[in-house]
Design the sequence.
C-alpha cells in the first residue's frame, strides 16, 4: 500500500515537473552554400520555471562543435560575439533570430539541404537536456517554423 | 520629407536651402557615421538619401582578385554601376541574409549593374571559397578577395571598417565590418551609401534615386 502511494506521488511530481520545464521550440538551420565552414541555427527557448535557466552547452552528432553567438548591427557596423553562458530569466524566453542570437554550427560533414533535419541537444544547468530536430531551410523573411520543438528530459 | 533639387522653391531663399540641407544632413549623418574622417563628406542638399555629392572619392590604385582568380583592378568598375557589399564566408548569420536580400532586389536593378561581394576576411577567403559562396546565392554576383594587405588598403581607402576579433582557442575569429552597401558609378566614383536597415525595397529605391541624380549631373 505504501509502495503504491509513493509511486503515485512520484508520478504526480514528474507531471508537474514536465508541465513547467524548460522548452526549446521552432529550431531551424539556415541552409548554406556547399562546403561552407559554418552554418547558423535558430530556436526559441522558454523557461516557465521560477529559476533562471542557463544554457551551458549545445551539440549535435552531425557537427564538430556548436556555439552560441550574438550578431549586432550598430551604426552600420556588424559585430558577432560568442556567448559562453546564456541565462533565460524565470518565466521568460529567448528567441534566436538572424542578426541576433544564433547557433554557430561548425564542421557539419555533409552540408544539409533544405528539408533535412539535424538533431540538436541543448544542455541546461541542473543536468537538464533537451534534444530537438532542427529543420534546415532557406530564410525568405518568413515566420519561424513550428517544427523542431522539444521539452526537457529528466536528468539522468 | 523629400526635396527635389530642381524644384523652384529651392532656387529661392537661402534659408530654405539651409533648412533642406540640415534635414538631409540628419538623415545622411547616420548613414555616414562609419566613414572615416579622411573622407570629407559633403552632405547633399538634394534630398536623395545616401547620396554623396560631390563624390568624395574615385576608386583607384587597387589590385584584388575576383572569384576566378583574375585581377580585380580599377578598370573592372568602369562603364557600369557597382553595388559593393562587404562580408566573409565564416559569417553564417548576417551575410547570407544580405546576399539573399540582394538576390531578390537585383532584378529591379538596371542591366549595367554588378553586385560585388567583397571579402573582409582575405586570409580565409580564397578566390575558390568566395566563388562557391557567391555562386550559391546568385551566379551573376561577383566575388572579390585578395591579399590581406591589398584588401586592407582597399577597404581603408573606402572608409569601410573591417576589424578582426581576437582568435579563440579553436583559432576562430570574426570580422567586425561595415554593413552598409556602397554605390560606385561608371566613372569609379563613390557616389552613395545605402544604410541599414536594408530591405529589398529600400535597396532598389535608394540605388535608383542616387543613380537618377548622378546621371542628371552628366
Ligand atoms: Cu556567429
Sequence:
Amino acid at each position: 500500500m505504501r509502495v503504491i502511494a509513493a509511486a503515485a506521488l512520484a508520478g504526480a511530481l514528474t507531471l508537474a515537473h514536465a508541465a513547467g520545464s524548460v522548452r526549446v521550440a521552432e529550431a531551424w538551420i539556415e541552409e548554406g552554400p556547399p562546403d561552407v565552414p559554418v552554418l547558423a541555427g535558430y530556436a526559441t527557448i522558454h523557461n516557465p520555471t521560477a529559476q533562471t535557466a542557463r544554457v551551458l552547452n549545445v551539440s549535435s552528432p552531425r557537427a564538430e562543435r556548436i556555439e552560441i553567438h550574438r550578431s549586432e548591427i550598430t551604426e552600420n557596423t556588424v559585430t558577432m560575439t560568442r556567448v559562453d553562458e546564456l541565462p533565460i530569466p524565470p518565466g521568460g524566453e529567448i528567441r534566436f533570430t538572424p542578426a541576433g542570437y544564433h547557433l554557430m554550427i561548425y564542421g557539419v560533414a555533409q552540408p544539409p539541404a533544405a528539408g533535412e533535419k539535424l538533431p540538436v541537444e541543448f544542455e541546461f544547468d541542473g543536468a537538464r537536456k533537451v534534444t530537438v530536430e532542427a529543420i534546415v531551410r532557406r530564410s525568405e523573411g518568413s515566420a519561424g517554423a513550428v517544427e523542431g520543438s522539444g521539452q526537457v528530459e529528466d536528468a539522468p | 520629407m523629400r526635396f527635389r533639387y530642381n524644384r523652384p522653391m529651392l532656387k529661392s531663399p537661402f534659408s530654405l536651402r539651409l533648412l533642406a540641407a540640415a534635414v538631409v544632413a540628419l538623415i545622411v549623418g547616420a548613414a555616414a557615421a562609419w566613414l572615416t574622417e579622411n573622407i570629407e563628406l559633403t552632405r547633399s542638399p538634394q534630398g536623395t538619401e545616401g547620396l554623396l555629392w560631390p563624390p568624395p572619392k574615385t576608386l583607384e590604385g587597387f589590385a584584388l582578385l575576383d572569384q576566378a582568380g583574375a585581377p580585380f583592378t580599377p578598370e573592372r568598375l568602369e562603364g557600369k554601376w557597382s553595388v559593393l557589399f562587404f562580408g566573409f564566408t565564416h559569417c553564417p548569420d548576417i551575410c547570407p541574409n544580405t546576399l539573399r536580400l540582394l538576390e531578390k532586389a537585383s532584378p529591379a536593378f538596371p542591366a549595367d549593374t554588378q553586385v560585388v561581394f567583397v571579402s573582409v576576411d582575405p586570409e580565409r577567403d580564397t578566390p575558390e571559397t568566395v566563388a562557391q559562396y557567391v555562386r550559391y546565392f546568385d551566379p551573376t554576383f561577383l566575388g572579390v578577395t585578395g591579399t590581406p594587405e591589398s584588401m586592407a588598403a582597399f577597404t581603408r581607402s573606402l572608409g569601410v571598417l573591417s576589424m578582426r576579433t581576437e582568435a579563440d582557442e579553436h583559432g576562430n575569429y570574426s570580422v567586425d565590418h561595415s554593413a552598409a552597401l556602397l554605390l560606385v558609378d561608371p566613372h569609379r566614383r563613390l557616389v552613395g551609401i545605402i544604410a541599414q536597415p536594408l530591405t529589398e525595397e529600400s535597396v532598389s529605391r535608394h540605388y535608383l534615386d542616387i543613380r537618377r541624380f548622378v546621371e542628371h549631373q552628366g
